[in-house]
Amino acid sequence: MVETEQVIAVVESLTPFKEASWLELSTLSGIQGLVAGVDEVGRGALFGPVVAAAVILPEHALPELIAAKIKDSKQLSPKRRTQLAQQICALAIDWKIGFASTAEIDEINILQASLLAMKRAVLKLKVQPALCLVDGNQSIKDLSLPQQTIIKGDERSLAIASASIVAKVWRDDLVLRFASKYPMYDLGKNKGYGSQKHLLALQHHGASRLHRKSFRPCQIQSTVNSQQLTVE
Q1: Are residues 147 and 198 in the same domain?
Q2: Which helix H or strand E contains 133, and what residues bound it?
Q3: Of these four, 19, 32, 98, 215, which has the most CB atoms within 10 Å of its CB?
Q4: Are residues 40 and 137 in the same domain?
Q5: pTM attached to this predicted model
Q6: What is residue 12's predicted lDDT score, i.e. its pLDDT?
Protein backbone atom coordinates (compact mmCIF):
# COMPACT_ATOMS: atom_id res chain seq x y z
CA MET A 1 0.00 0.00 0.00
CA VAL A 2 1.38 3.39 -0.98
CA GLU A 3 1.69 5.93 1.81
CA THR A 4 -1.05 8.56 1.70
CA GLU A 5 1.39 11.48 1.65
CA GLN A 6 3.29 9.98 -1.29
CA VAL A 7 0.13 9.39 -3.28
CA ILE A 8 -1.21 12.89 -2.72
CA ALA A 9 2.13 14.45 -3.57
CA VAL A 10 2.24 12.62 -6.89
CA VAL A 11 -1.29 13.58 -7.88
CA GLU A 12 -0.94 17.19 -6.77
CA SER A 13 1.92 17.51 -9.26
CA LEU A 14 -0.53 17.04 -12.15
CA THR A 15 0.24 19.11 -15.21
CA PRO A 16 -2.30 21.77 -16.26
CA PHE A 17 -5.38 20.36 -17.99
CA LYS A 18 -4.61 21.82 -21.39
CA GLU A 19 -1.22 20.08 -21.40
CA ALA A 20 -2.28 16.76 -19.92
CA SER A 21 -3.17 13.48 -21.58
CA TRP A 22 -4.64 10.51 -19.71
CA LEU A 23 -3.22 10.63 -16.20
CA GLU A 24 -2.74 6.87 -16.02
CA LEU A 25 -0.18 7.13 -18.83
CA SER A 26 1.77 9.99 -17.31
CA THR A 27 1.59 11.25 -13.73
CA LEU A 28 0.03 8.16 -12.18
CA SER A 29 2.28 5.68 -13.92
CA GLY A 30 4.75 5.78 -11.03
CA ILE A 31 2.25 4.88 -8.32
CA GLN A 32 2.62 1.39 -6.93
CA GLY A 33 -0.86 0.06 -6.34
CA LEU A 34 -4.32 0.07 -7.85
CA VAL A 35 -6.18 3.28 -8.66
CA ALA A 36 -9.97 3.59 -8.53
CA GLY A 37 -11.85 6.16 -10.55
CA VAL A 38 -14.99 7.53 -8.89
CA ASP A 39 -17.72 9.60 -10.50
CA GLU A 40 -21.42 10.34 -10.07
CA VAL A 41 -24.27 10.99 -12.48
CA GLY A 42 -27.78 12.36 -12.13
CA ARG A 43 -26.90 15.31 -9.95
CA GLY A 44 -29.01 17.72 -12.00
CA ALA A 45 -31.97 15.39 -12.57
CA LEU A 46 -35.41 16.01 -11.06
CA PHE A 47 -36.36 12.35 -10.77
CA GLY A 48 -34.61 9.32 -9.31
CA PRO A 49 -31.47 8.71 -7.27
CA VAL A 50 -28.02 10.13 -7.77
CA VAL A 51 -25.76 7.26 -8.82
CA ALA A 52 -22.00 6.77 -8.53
CA ALA A 53 -19.55 4.16 -9.77
CA ALA A 54 -16.09 3.17 -8.61
CA VAL A 55 -13.94 1.39 -11.20
CA ILE A 56 -10.49 -0.19 -10.88
CA LEU A 57 -8.80 -0.91 -14.20
CA PRO A 58 -5.83 -3.20 -14.81
CA GLU A 59 -2.89 -1.64 -16.60
CA HIS A 60 -3.28 -3.91 -19.62
CA ALA A 61 -6.82 -2.57 -20.22
CA LEU A 62 -5.71 1.01 -20.74
CA PRO A 63 -4.55 0.69 -24.39
CA GLU A 64 -7.73 -1.19 -25.27
CA LEU A 65 -9.96 1.52 -23.78
CA ILE A 66 -7.98 4.27 -25.47
CA ALA A 67 -8.37 2.43 -28.79
CA ALA A 68 -12.11 2.25 -28.09
CA LYS A 69 -12.06 6.07 -27.84
CA ILE A 70 -13.33 6.21 -24.29
CA LYS A 71 -14.39 9.68 -23.13
CA ASP A 72 -16.70 11.50 -20.75
CA SER A 73 -20.10 9.77 -20.77
CA LYS A 74 -21.89 13.02 -21.70
CA GLN A 75 -20.01 13.06 -25.03
CA LEU A 76 -21.15 9.59 -26.07
CA SER A 77 -24.33 8.35 -27.72
CA PRO A 78 -26.53 6.03 -25.60
CA LYS A 79 -25.63 3.06 -27.80
CA ARG A 80 -21.90 3.74 -27.56
CA ARG A 81 -22.12 4.28 -23.79
CA THR A 82 -23.76 0.89 -23.36
CA GLN A 83 -21.12 -0.83 -25.49
CA LEU A 84 -18.30 0.81 -23.56
CA ALA A 85 -19.91 0.08 -20.18
CA GLN A 86 -20.01 -3.62 -21.05
CA GLN A 87 -16.40 -3.51 -22.18
CA ILE A 88 -15.28 -1.63 -19.04
CA CYS A 89 -17.04 -4.01 -16.67
CA ALA A 90 -15.54 -7.01 -18.46
CA LEU A 91 -12.03 -5.56 -18.23
CA ALA A 92 -12.18 -4.08 -14.73
CA ILE A 93 -10.47 -5.68 -11.77
CA ASP A 94 -13.45 -4.51 -9.74
CA TRP A 95 -16.34 -2.11 -10.13
CA LYS A 96 -19.27 -1.22 -7.96
CA ILE A 97 -22.33 1.06 -7.95
CA GLY A 98 -23.51 3.23 -5.08
CA PHE A 99 -26.50 5.54 -4.95
CA ALA A 100 -28.41 7.93 -2.72
CA SER A 101 -32.20 7.91 -2.84
CA THR A 102 -34.48 10.84 -3.55
CA ALA A 103 -35.41 10.89 0.15
CA GLU A 104 -31.74 11.21 1.08
CA ILE A 105 -31.25 13.93 -1.53
CA ASP A 106 -34.12 15.91 -0.03
CA GLU A 107 -32.84 15.38 3.49
CA ILE A 108 -29.12 16.18 3.14
CA ASN A 109 -29.02 18.11 -0.21
CA ILE A 110 -27.77 16.97 -3.59
CA LEU A 111 -24.08 17.69 -3.00
CA GLN A 112 -23.89 15.62 0.17
CA ALA A 113 -26.02 12.89 -1.43
CA SER A 114 -23.62 12.76 -4.41
CA LEU A 115 -20.64 12.35 -2.07
CA LEU A 116 -22.55 9.69 -0.13
CA ALA A 117 -23.26 7.75 -3.33
CA MET A 118 -19.56 7.87 -4.24
CA LYS A 119 -18.54 6.72 -0.77
CA ARG A 120 -20.95 3.79 -0.97
CA ALA A 121 -19.55 2.77 -4.36
CA VAL A 122 -15.97 2.81 -3.05
CA LEU A 123 -16.83 0.92 0.13
CA LYS A 124 -18.49 -1.85 -1.91
CA LEU A 125 -15.25 -2.60 -3.76
CA LYS A 126 -13.90 -6.02 -2.87
CA VAL A 127 -10.42 -4.96 -4.01
CA GLN A 128 -8.98 -2.08 -2.00
CA PRO A 129 -7.30 0.60 -4.13
CA ALA A 130 -4.16 2.51 -3.17
CA LEU A 131 -5.79 5.73 -4.37
CA CYS A 132 -9.25 6.99 -5.30
CA LEU A 133 -9.45 9.63 -8.01
CA VAL A 134 -12.66 11.57 -7.42
CA ASP A 135 -14.20 13.67 -10.16
CA GLY A 136 -14.78 17.31 -9.19
CA ASN A 137 -13.45 19.45 -6.36
CA GLN A 138 -15.19 17.89 -3.34
CA SER A 139 -13.55 15.15 -1.30
CA ILE A 140 -15.57 12.18 -0.06
CA LYS A 141 -16.18 12.64 3.65
CA ASP A 142 -14.99 10.05 6.17
CA LEU A 143 -13.31 7.88 3.55
CA SER A 144 -10.33 6.05 5.07
CA LEU A 145 -8.64 5.44 1.71
CA PRO A 146 -6.30 8.01 0.11
CA GLN A 147 -8.18 10.18 -2.36
CA GLN A 148 -7.59 13.11 -4.65
CA THR A 149 -10.15 15.28 -6.41
CA ILE A 150 -9.61 15.96 -10.11
CA ILE A 151 -11.51 18.80 -11.78
CA LYS A 152 -12.84 17.59 -15.13
CA GLY A 153 -11.58 14.19 -14.12
CA ASP A 154 -13.81 12.40 -16.61
CA GLU A 155 -11.78 14.08 -19.36
CA ARG A 156 -8.39 13.42 -17.74
CA SER A 157 -8.49 9.99 -16.13
CA LEU A 158 -9.39 6.74 -17.85
CA ALA A 159 -10.62 5.32 -14.54
CA ILE A 160 -12.88 8.31 -13.84
CA ALA A 161 -14.19 8.32 -17.42
CA SER A 162 -14.95 4.61 -17.04
CA ALA A 163 -16.79 5.25 -13.78
CA SER A 164 -18.79 8.01 -15.45
CA ILE A 165 -19.88 5.69 -18.26
CA VAL A 166 -20.77 2.76 -15.99
CA ALA A 167 -22.75 5.00 -13.62
CA LYS A 168 -24.59 6.73 -16.46
CA VAL A 169 -25.67 3.48 -18.12
CA TRP A 170 -26.74 1.97 -14.79
CA ARG A 171 -28.79 5.03 -13.84
CA ASP A 172 -30.42 5.39 -17.27
CA ASP A 173 -31.46 1.73 -17.16
CA LEU A 174 -32.95 2.25 -13.69
CA VAL A 175 -34.97 5.29 -14.75
CA LEU A 176 -36.22 3.47 -17.84
CA ARG A 177 -37.74 0.83 -15.57
CA PHE A 178 -39.96 3.52 -14.11
CA ALA A 179 -40.92 5.02 -17.49
CA SER A 180 -43.97 2.76 -17.92
CA LYS A 181 -45.13 3.41 -14.36
CA TYR A 182 -44.90 7.17 -14.79
CA PRO A 183 -45.53 7.69 -18.54
CA MET A 184 -46.70 11.28 -18.10
CA TYR A 185 -43.16 12.49 -17.32
CA ASP A 186 -41.56 11.26 -20.58
CA LEU A 187 -38.78 9.55 -18.61
CA GLY A 188 -37.85 7.32 -21.52
CA LYS A 189 -36.50 10.36 -23.35
CA ASN A 190 -35.36 12.72 -20.59
CA LYS A 191 -34.00 10.12 -18.09
CA GLY A 192 -35.36 12.22 -15.23
CA TYR A 193 -33.90 15.56 -16.31
CA GLY A 194 -35.96 18.72 -16.70
CA SER A 195 -37.02 18.65 -20.33
CA GLN A 196 -39.91 20.85 -21.44
CA LYS A 197 -42.34 17.89 -21.43
CA HIS A 198 -41.16 16.87 -17.99
CA LEU A 199 -41.65 20.36 -16.57
CA LEU A 200 -45.11 20.65 -18.12
CA ALA A 201 -46.06 17.26 -16.67
CA LEU A 202 -44.96 18.42 -13.22
CA GLN A 203 -47.22 21.46 -13.54
CA HIS A 204 -50.16 19.31 -14.56
CA HIS A 205 -49.69 16.16 -12.47
CA GLY A 206 -47.42 17.29 -9.66
CA ALA A 207 -44.42 15.31 -8.43
CA SER A 208 -44.30 11.54 -7.99
CA ARG A 209 -42.83 9.86 -4.93
CA LEU A 210 -39.53 9.50 -6.79
CA HIS A 211 -39.18 13.18 -7.63
CA ARG A 212 -36.79 15.35 -5.66
CA LYS A 213 -39.14 17.50 -3.63
CA SER A 214 -36.32 19.83 -2.56
CA PHE A 215 -35.80 20.84 -6.21
CA ARG A 216 -37.87 23.92 -7.13
CA PRO A 217 -39.48 22.50 -10.33
CA CYS A 218 -40.86 19.63 -8.25
CA GLN A 219 -42.53 21.97 -5.76
CA ILE A 220 -45.18 23.25 -8.18
CA GLN A 221 -48.69 22.28 -7.16
CA SER A 222 -50.37 20.37 -9.95
CA THR A 223 -53.21 22.03 -11.87
CA VAL A 224 -55.21 18.82 -11.41
CA ASN A 225 -55.06 19.12 -7.63
CA SER A 226 -55.83 22.82 -7.83
CA GLN A 227 -58.96 22.14 -9.88
CA GLN A 228 -60.08 19.46 -7.43
CA LEU A 229 -59.65 21.84 -4.53
CA THR A 230 -61.71 24.48 -6.35
CA VAL A 231 -64.55 22.05 -7.01
CA GLU A 232 -64.57 20.80 -3.44
Answers
A1: no
A2: strand 131-135
A3: 98
A4: yes
A5: 0.86
A6: 52
